[in-house]
Amino acid sequence: APERTLVLVKPDGVRRGLVGEVLRRIEAKGYTLVAAELRTADAELLGAHYAEHEGKPFYPALVEFMASGPVLAVVAEGHRVIEGFRVLAGATDPTTAAPGTIRGDLGREWGLRVTQNLVHGSDSPESAAREIALWFPHL
Ligand code: CMP
């Protein structure tokens, strides 16, 4: 069965008008869009989404940044899409992310306290299932 992953275009990506560019790359790779919703996440949703990072030095700024404006939440489907989207996204740090990747080509800002790196993608089948249930409870 094809895999599903949760992709977020973060507030920096929405503010910079890069939603279409991120979706284009997902579709060009051959993945299918299953769901997409533009919304501003609240602290409860972000706390659950980033539970594994709670307590890390960058966590408060991360949640503040992620709540600073709308994000586009997307469920994408396809063969090995979890790993495949993370390759499309590139390394966490936009400065060193490889050219050809979303962050390598388009990533710009390294915020004072948090990495503004345009996109999020689930990192494992377990995370994908958990994150899709949080953002799209009806799926
Ligand atoms: P994401 O894939 O959404 O998962 C956690 C996020 O925390 C990550 O992308 C970055 O935006 C941010 N992040 C991860 N590591 C660091 C770090 N060392 N310093 C600041 N922000 C980080």
TrEMBL record:
Protein name: Nucleoside diphosphate kinase
EC number: 2.7.4.6
Similarity annotation: Belongs to the NDK family.
Lineage: Bacteria, Bacillati, Actinomycetota, Actinomycetes, Micrococcales
Positions of the Nucleoside diphosphate kinase-like domain: 2-139
Keywords: ATP-binding, Cytoplasm, Kinase, Magnesium, Metal-binding, Nucleotide metabolism, Nucleotide-binding, Phosphoprotein, Transferase
Subcellular location(s) per record: Cytoplasm
GO terms, biological process: CTP biosynthetic process; GTP biosynthetic process; UTP biosynthetic process
Native species: Cellulomonas carbonis T26
